[in-house]
Write a structure and sequence with these properties.
The chain has 456 residues and is mostly helical. A hairpin with a 2-residue loop joins strand 2 and strand 3. The protein has a three-stranded mixed beta sheet. 68% of the residues lie in helices and 3% in strands. The protein is built from 19 helices and three strands.
């Protein structure tokens, strides 16, 4: 029974990604970037680099041309499968960090896996991972790259001694470059966290030389790679100008360094508001989950087992270190994003790190539990998320399919559609729908070689 329950929890999350990536209709941004048109890989990658010099954007712009507006067996099958693998890979890495080992087909592992899934996809934070391919290919890649790169540093932080050959250390240099080119803020937050943890170690041990000697060549090469990647992005690419020119300054209340110098008091107030707003949106779901499990722990220990003392902090030193690093990264990432009243997608890496911290604490608090009841509760929630996502995806697929058929069969060169025809239904607060098939800012847009506009 426990194995069946575990298998259902793992399997249903896979169903979620399959439904999301094969049942989705391309969004307005996807269509604008070239979905359903002839591929132009090199041109698109070059344009994406000039836009913001991020590898995920270069990938998103280059592959979207291979996608049809709705799935029908073709070359995009490969890319959609890659998306499914990346989604499951993200959950695997999150769970691996939490468990400190490989994930097994066991109920305890499945419960932790399901908790991570629910904390991401039962909140607005998960929206960019299923709502449209432009966002999926950007932020799913950013999270997976950050997890894959940071995992080795976390393992080292736990005291694992890894003997790497010279070519493996060289790969960390390349991985660092990729990570440095993956996003604007996350590599910066990683570097600050890395240096901060190194400084804490020096202060604790009161031996600067010893702390530096413990650094391995692959750790140093990884950091050098990040710096190289960031240099390429900011020197060879547009830096932050692409975002500012694209409306970020107005839409997200951007506070430039020049503004800080000219108006220090007003800027300080704005930055403080941003930190509080960004922090609350990142931390709030974590607090809810921790409160729920804390109450369960209190009831179990005080009422059922009649224990007077509860241990809330991990007992093992390595788990405490991982928790400290994850919490530190969350705080640093929020502070690094203080120039913006940041959209959730920008804060997603910080949120994922916080999710892992919560999962680690829940794993500690639930030691000794049978997990059957918790697993059953998780299963009900997972079924709810997967079911709602499936219903909304199929509903929009049918609705958008009729619009696409109307455009394809029209004898006019200009076809009008209503907003209601292309709008996706979503759930309040949770979302679970997808981005609309046509967006205002993309019009007029070409679909099936016809110009599509709003009906007056």
């Amino acid at each position: 029974m426990r194995k069946i329950l575990a298998g259902l929890l793992f399997g249903l999350t896979a169903v979620f990604f399959v439904v999301s990536y094969f049942g989705i209709t391309t969004s307005g941004e996807d269509v604008y970037q070239g979905a359903g048109t002839e591929p132009a890989v090199l041109e698109d990658m070059g344009a994406a680099f000039q836009h913001n010099a991020r590898i995920p954007d270069m990938y998103a712009w280059a592959v979207i041309n291979f996608f049809d507006y709705q799935y029908s067996f073709g070359i995009d099958t490969v890319f959609r499968l890659v998306d499914v693998i990346l989604g499951m890979g993200m959950l695997y890495l999150i769970t691996y960090v939490t468990l400190g080992r490989k994930v097994r087909l066991e109920l305890k592992d499945a419960v932790i896996w399901a908790l991570g899934f629910l904390m991401i996809f039962l909140t607005p934070h998960g929206r960019v991972l299923y709502a449209g391919f432009s966002a999926i290919h950007n932020y799913l890649l950013i999270v997976v790259i950050a997890l894959g790169f940071g995992l080795w540093y976390l393992k080292r932080m736990c005291g694992e001694e890894m003997r790497w050959r010279w070519w493996q250390a060289g790969l960390m240099l390349l991985a660092g470059v990729v990570f440095g080119l993956s996003s604007n803020l996350t590599p910066v937050a990683f570097l600050i966290t890395f240096v901060g943890m190194l400084a804490i170690r020096m202060v604790r041990e009161k031996k600067v030389g010893e702390a530096l000697k413990r650094l391995r060549i692959w750790e140093i090469l990884g950091v050098v790679g990040i710096l190289i990647g960031m240099a390429v992005a900011y020197i060879g690419g547009p830096g932050v100008s692409g975002y500012i020119d694209g409306g970020y300054a107005t839409e997200y209340d951007y506070v430039s360094l020049g503004e800080v110098m000219r108006q220090p008091m007003e800027s300080a107030v704005k930055l403080t508001k941003h930190v509080v707003s960004n922090g609350v949106r990142v931390v709030a779901p974590m607090v809810v989950v921790l409160v729920v499990f804390a109450m369960m722990r209190i009831v179990r220990k005080w009422v059922w087992e009649k224990q007077d003392r509860l241990v809330w902090w991990p007992v093992e030193e390595k788990e405490r270190r991982v928790l400290m690093v994850l919490v530190g990264f969350v705080v640093v990432h929020i502070l690094v994003a203080m120039q913006l009243s940041a959209p959730l997608r920008i804060l997603l890496p910080a949120y994922v790190a916080g999710v892992m911290a919560v999962m680690l604490l829940v794993r500690e608090w639930t030691k000794g539990w049978g997990m059957e009841v918790v697993g059953a509760g998780m299963l009900v929630l997972v079924i709810g998320v997967v079911g709602a996502r499936t219903v909304l995806a199929l509903e929009h697929h049918g609705k958008a399919g009729k619009v696409l058929e109307k455009i394809r069969e029209s004898e006019m060169s200009v076809v009008c559609v209503t907003r209601g025809e292309v709008t996706s239904r979503t759930l309040l607060g949770i979302y679970l729908g997808q981005e609309d098939m046509i967006a205002d800012w993309t019009l007029p847009v070409k679909i099936y070689d016809k110009e599509v506009v709003w009906c007056e």
